Fold this protein.
Amino acid sequence: MSEQASPLGREVLSGASLEVLEALYGEYAPPELPWINAATPKSARFWVTFLAGVPDPALPYGMGTSLADTAGDAEFEVRGRARADHYVIRTFPGRRGHFQVDGLEPMDSLVQSPRQRHRQVVPARTWVRELVLPKARVTEALRVRLGEEPSRELRFDPVLRQGIPAVAGLVQLINGWADPRRAQLLAASPLALRHFEQLLVQALLDAQPHELSEELDRHAAGLPMAAVRRAMVYCEEHADRPISVPDMAAAAGVAVRQLQRNFQEHLGMGPLEYLRRVRLDNVHQELLAVACGRANGTVAEIARRWGFTHQGRFAQYYRETYGCPPSQTLRQPR
């Protein structure tokens, strides 16, 4: 196993036999169990490393979006059918094997839609990486972006072409989650982990062709200002919460890049700058209320309440917007 070291993660199997690997795959498979074989089935040993996951008690096995690596000390082959409630992205982060699906030519990266058959051949001492995305998450993202329930189950083009920049970015995002430092950081923040899960789903919908790609593009192009207004309202209603650009895009029903482009075209600023201005306005109104005796609080307390933790940068933003330091507003109401 020296040619491709496993990323740090929780080992599920360590040097297990073919029978143990089959039992593990079978536990998470649909009623039709996968077929697994190895070049030396009696002596082959296998390793499975669980890298990261998003807990979700509402989904099967309590696990939502998840990432895992599998390897063996001998070449092995897996044939099977995807679960009905999952999409799976399969890649080789190091030395390459190959995948096949629906009778297509072999490929080195794959997006497997629900119930779709696949075959993978993994060379000895090579890791195959699998990102599992619950169908419910993809459907939810589609519902938000289309403004209605999707008319059918989404099926992706199975060939993941890493030569395309957007696809390469998606794969880098997946591989970045395998970095133990990032995985530990996301695991320590449930909110950040949910945001990252949304980012993965939205990136997949934008980067990989699928049956509704044109419909999503038409929807995004036909309602640019309406999407901006939805994002603006979302900012104003949730300015006191730790929201992100993917949150705003989801509320607007468009992709992140589309939202950023629409904000620049119609408002001359990005979504985060608009959010900052909304929060600055709330700070300003509270400072005026304190100055008039209608409320209590210090500049630092009010600023922190609206998400400004760095007092120096906050004071700079405030002066640029209102032409005076926040302490002056507190002393001289207008």
